Amino acid sequence: MKLRSGMYGILVASFLMLGVPLFAHHGTGVAYETDKLVTVKGTVVDWLWSNPHCGLLFDVTDDKGNLVHWGAELGNPHQMSGAGFARDTFKPGDKITVTGHPAKSGAPRMTLDHLVLADGRTLSGRGVKGNGEHDDPSY
Amino acid sequence: MASTTILHTERIAIDRSLVMRKHFFKSVGLLVSVLALCSVAGAQTYGTKGYAPGAWKPEELPKELSQPKPFNAHDLSGVWSMPTKANYERHSLNDKRLNIQDKSLPGEMRAQSYPPAMTAWGKERFEAAKPSYGPRSVPPGLGNDLVSTCEPMGYPRDLWEANLRPFEFVMASDRVLQHMQYHDLWRTIWTDGRPLPKNPDPAWNGYSIGHWDGDTFIVESTGYDDRTWLDHFGNPHSDQMKLVERYKRLDPDTLQLDMTLTDPKAYMAPWVGDTITFERAKVAIFEEICAPSEENRFNDRVRDAAVGTAKP
């Protein structure tokens, strides 16, 4: 069941990536594996709704039972508002499934692609431009 | 620990041919649902004229924000942004791009404008700069771009943000104010007849005067603080930099800009920029201050940890 959920995440993310650039973000291409995606399930620790970057901190239990402190980069609040995020989207303890591009260093950090909330809603962190339009014409 | 998670994901990818066949139609259905959800969110919120996230809802705002027609060519007022179609992005004076072969890099990473030949002073500054965009990119935690800690971007670098954040012209009787959304920067362009200052104290955004030549508004500037970069590629400028900008409204919704930079301390020749054509922005100006305390917290807890430079 766990395997199947992860598969759907990868499939959906792969389809969404077709021909669509990442949003311009300071240092994304050199700090993160922009051609790779990882999906992890975790519990929200903190939600940084801040300018000019939002951040999501969450804990993940890995295959060996170790607790890993993950973090994800997001755009600024205006960009994220346009993608359906808000300052009260997360609270500590929320269960989430997060997909993103992992840090090249191997550190448990990613730049967000999309995530699934406990209620099943999907929020995307991709393709959002600060001037109010999405790179992805399907938006 | 993180690598364990990544290996697990890669293993899933290897097995995907079997799983894909079995669950293909279910996945496509899920994809359609996700796209539909995104489409609804995009159409009703961001991009709607006057939408202000975290404040007013679209239905609470006047329906028409644009100026009545016909327009006055000597009235630059309004909110402007760079074109939003065809993935156009301007990050320096030119649109030209180097042919960087690494296709895995996003487009903006491969882009680097062509400056004129640099002087020895200019080259030294350029080589000391460690940017996080362009072919010389390093992760922000290992770089020295002042914006990573919310230091002033200076002008004209703040103007290139107009591909992400709009700017606004406000016309006054003795000056024109250029209001940049990012950093909430207010640039004063004096139109009261004063000359450029002869030997001013350097300022982050320089000193500017403007006058009309026909329907073209000409802005001349000097007195810039040389700690800022011209662009996010780390191209330098000195305190001798002079900018000449020519703004012209072509129609109610189009504003054209030509810019020439002269800086004999940093460059061997004037740097003539490609023409920028701004369009009337689809969103209002929002408050978007780069707050040092917030960005430092983000750096410490998220970004710097990605490259192992986070403070303990």
Q: Can you list the strand order of the major beta sheet of chain B?
A: 1-2-3-4-5-6-7-8-10
Number of helices of chain B: 6
If you compute it from the alpha carbons, what radius of gyration of chain A comes out, rounded to the nearest whole angstrom? 14 Å
Task: Return the CATH architecture of chain A.
Answer: Beta Barrel
The main sheet of chain B comes to:
9 strands, mixed, barrel
- Give the fraction of residues assigned to helices of chain B: 10-25%
What do we call the CATH homologous superfamily of chain A? Nucleic acid-binding proteins
Query: Would you tell me which CATH topology of chain A applies?
Result: OB fold (Dihydrolipoamide Acetyltransferase, E2P)
The low-confidence runs of chain B, each spanning 5 or more residues with pLDDT under 50, are: 1-48
Mean pLDDT of chain A: 78
How would you characterize the overall build of this protein?
The complex is a heterodimer of chains A (139) and B (312). Chain A is an alpha+beta fold and 139 residues long. Chain A has one domain: Nucleic acid-binding proteins (OB fold (Dihydrolipoamide Acetyltransferase, E2P), Beta Barrel). Chain A is 19% helix and 32% strand. Chain A is built from three helices and six strands. Chain A has a five-stranded mixed β-barrel. Chain A is globular and about 35 Å long. The N terminus and C terminus of chain A are likely disordered. Chain B is an alpha+beta fold and 312 residues long. Chain B folds into two domains: 43 residues; 203 residues, no CATH class. Chain B is 24% helix and 20% strand. Chain B is built from six helices and ten strands. Chain B has a nine-stranded mixed β-barrel with strand order 1-2-3-4-5-6-7-8-10. In chain B, strand 8 and strand 9 form a beta hairpin. The longest helix of chain B is centred in the N-terminal third of the chain and has 29 residues. The N terminus of chain B is likely disordered.
